[in-house]
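Annotated sample (chain length 457).
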Amino acid sequence: MIIYDTIIYMKLTFNGGVGEVTGANYLLESGTKKILIDCGLHQGSHFSDQLNWESFPYNPAEIDAVVITHTHIDHTGLLPKLVRDGFKGRVISTEPTKDFAKILLMDSEHILLQEAERHKKEPLYTLRDIEDLMAKWEGYRYHEEVEIGPFRVTLFNAGHILGSSIILIEVEGKKIIFSGDLGNTPSPIIGATEFLGDDIDYCLIESTYGNRIHEGPHQKGVVEDVIEETVKRGGTLLIPAFAMERTQKLLFEINELIENGRIPQIPIFLDSPLAIKVTDVYKKHTDYFDEETIKYLKKDHTLFSFPGLKQTITTDESKSINDIQPPKVIIAGSGMSQGGRILHHEKRYLSDSKNTILFVGYQAKNSLGRKIQDGEKVVTIHKEKIPVKCKIVSAGNYSAHADQNQLLDWLYPMRYGLEKVFVVQGDPEESEALRNKIVNDLVVRAEIPEKGKTYEL
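Output written by the structure step:
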């Protein structure tokens, strides 16, 4: 009699984060055990926003755990909905990611509630759902192994934002890497992206900048030049900034520029209550800073404070910025100009040629930021037509995302062991460009998965 061993196939399903930058959501199954890697919100267009109200393509109650690469809402934004719909498992990430998540999700809840009311929908989730989620959330250090049924999970520094992770999952004798968002490394404060070995079987790699090369390594030079030009013209510099990482990097580098006398001291406003809260979490987790930043702190320096900086928390404080004569700098959210206080400043300052708007982060397709960046002469803000006459500057090298060369460099050490690479989290042209480079330059099988497709690994 012949006895056949039972083969348990590992399955990977792409429920989001394919054909688009946002909405990361990957389901990994081994036998009856199921884990998610990220559970992100769809962002960037009205159509994308509607996807957030659709039912999950799996039963949340059957998910044993969710492992989170980092806190950005396009990777975490549907977690409270997952809890509301029956998820009772564990949530795994680094400690900073856990602390950031509550702040960002509560901020997002307010925005999504307004969206729901506008379209006469039920709220996507409530503050109670966020509290229930946080009770399930566990924080771990880099390189600390976590067991989830048959899955062994290890987090590595992605160099993207504080606490961001590359996720290594070992199961059924295979190793799978989820890149999350890889950083434009080396980055101030948070250190360099970690490289892994040549024994990885499968890799999901982001492709946000899959077809682009950053302009150069001199990030501070861009900010220094733009501030000096703004002062000479007597204008206002607008910086739509993401509350997390981009804002802290800006503050850190402006602080250095002022300390070294490289820019004049002018009023600089941090007009983002969310960014102010996030900065406080940075101060809590200094053990995640790189060695250079820790040495800097030991010399009695401050990272995020300098003469001329004013944090405007209340609405009245924000409005009072208009009373301050230029030159001045306004750093405000949101980073893609899809909401937040930056919209009020853009309505006021975009139409003046003395002013400048500086983009220091990725602008998704169809976002207001992308329209301004692409040179549209008139944009609509709060149902008003606003002419765009100010100077437009994009600091691509200031991005927190790895460019094409950095993505390929990160993948290079794995090339001999890889069975396949899945190219995710990018616009179609970006993903296709990176896929072609992986196939032609690294001679590795690579595919852009379709949304909803399941692969047996």
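Annotation: The chain has a mean pLDDT of 91.
Annotation: The two ends are 30 Å apart (CA to CA).
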